[in-house]
């Protein structure tokens, strides 16, 4: 076991060393900033995808809803912190609607997510009032961090854009808070009941658990995290667009799978940290692809699909290699 861990660490160091040779420092910091923001999205998706065995497609709509809601409130003069929190609450409402469609109207999980995602497109347009909202000239959470001395010091040392360093500083505070709060919740009795619902719904019902409420609660927490990620990303990007949620499901799933394959310790409760590291790794790989001359930016989605397929196939490949090693060992005896 220790040898496998050492080999895994060595392989990760070698891969990231190769990336650092190809990628410039600004691209690395930009990838880190985006990875930290999207890690909240991936963690939110993890709450339903793994804990509840529920493939929720509401993510594309709730991510945009969080971005659009926050942008509209900030442009309207609201404090950016309150605007971000309200955007998170809006995502929770979206998750509640998806839960209602599934638990009350008995619509299958996949279809309930598709219905909610489709309806949210029109709602997002209503919330934003137009297809996009610029935040360039408005006070946001990032502009407040840009004035901090440590942020300016890092900008001088690295030469990176000030909003990138400010994003990393902000996310370095927000992401740990999200992880700590979720870990505290899932270590409570209610949290264990939610996980039990995903592990064995019939057994949970036999123990008197209202599994419908547990599903709705998970969807509320999940989409709240996703909307929070969207609100922060809109402030990082400087604009909220009605189509900015397209593809976030693939990014979230790829991040979850990479976190599980590379970083997850199955004997611990550090799954949220694993997902965060998986998301950052995904964006480092993305930066690597965009900085290699042989790749075109339009190839990124194909590369993402290949990375996701490879990550999903790692357990199968590993089992076959272990089986072949055992056969050779037996023959040697």
How are the elements arranged and paired?
Blueprint: H1 2-22, H2 25-49, H3 59-75, H4 80-103, H5 109-128, E1 132-134, H6 141-146, H7 149-158, H8 162-186, H9 189-199, H10 201-206, H11 211-237, E2 239-241, H12 248-263, H13 271-291, H14 300-332
Antiparallel strand pairs: 1-2
Helix pairs in contact: 1-13, 2-8, 2-11, 2-12, 2-13, 3-4, 3-5, 3-11, 4-5, 4-11, 7-8, 9-11, 12-13, 12-14
Report what the structure shows:
This protein is mainly alpha-helical. The chain has one domain (2-332): ABC transporter involved in vitamin B12 uptake, BtuC. Helix content is 79%, strand content 2%. It contains 14 helices and two strands; from the N terminus they run αααααβααααααβααα. Strands 1-2 form a two-stranded antiparallel sheet. The longest helix is centred in the C-terminal third of the chain and has 33 residues, at 300-332.
The CATH C-level name is: Mainly Alpha
Tally of helical segments: 14
Largest sheet: 2 strands, antiparallel
Q: What is the H/E order?
A: HHHHHEHHHHHHEHHH
Structural class: mainly alpha
Q: Order of strands across the widest beta sheet?
A: 1-2
CATH-assigned fold name: ABC transporter involved in vitamin B12 uptake, BtuC
Backbone CA Rg? 21 Å
- As residue ranges, the low-confidence spans are none
């Amino acid at each position: 076991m220790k040898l496998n861990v050492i080999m895994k660490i060595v392989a990760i160091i070698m891969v990231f060393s190769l990336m650092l040779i190809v990628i410039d420092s600004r691209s690395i910091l930009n990838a880190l900033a985006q990875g930290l923001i999207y890690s909240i999205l991936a963690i939110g998706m993890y709450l339903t995808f793994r804990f509840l065995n529920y493939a929720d497609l509401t993510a594309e709509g709730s991510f945009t809803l969080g971005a659009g809601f926050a942008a509209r409130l900030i442009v309207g003069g609201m404090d950016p912190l309150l605007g971000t929190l309200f955007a998170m609450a809006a995502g929770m409402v979206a998750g509640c609607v998806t839960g209602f469609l599934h638990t009350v109207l008995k619509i299958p999980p996949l279809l309930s997510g598709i219905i909610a995602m489709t309806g949210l497109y029109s709602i997002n347009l209503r919330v934003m009032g137009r297809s996009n909202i610029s935040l360039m000239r408005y006070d946001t959470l990032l502009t407040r961090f840009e004035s901090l001395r440590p942020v300016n010091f890092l900008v001088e040392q690295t030469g990176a854009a000030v909003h990138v360093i400010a994003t990393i500083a902000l996310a370095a505070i927000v992401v740990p808070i999200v992880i700590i709060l979720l870990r505290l919740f899932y270590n409570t009795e209610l949290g264990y009941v939610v996980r039990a619902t995903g592990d064995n719904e019939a057994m949970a019902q036999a123990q008197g658990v209202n599994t419908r409420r547990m599903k709705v609660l998970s969807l509320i927490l999940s989409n709240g995290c996703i909307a929070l990620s969207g609100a922060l990303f809109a402030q990082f990007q400087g604009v909220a667009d009605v189509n900015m949620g397209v593809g976030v499901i693939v990014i979230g799933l790829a991040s979850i799978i990479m976190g599980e394959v590379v970083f997850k310790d199955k004997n611990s409760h550090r799954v949220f940290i694993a997902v965060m590291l998986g998301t950052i790794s995904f964006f480092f790989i993305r930066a690597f692809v965009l900085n290699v001359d042989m790749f075109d930016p339009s190839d990124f989605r194909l590369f993402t699909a290949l990375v996701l397929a490879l990550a999903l196939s790692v357990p199968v490949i590993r089992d076959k290699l272990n089986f072949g090693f055992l056969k050779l060992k037996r023959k040697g005896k």
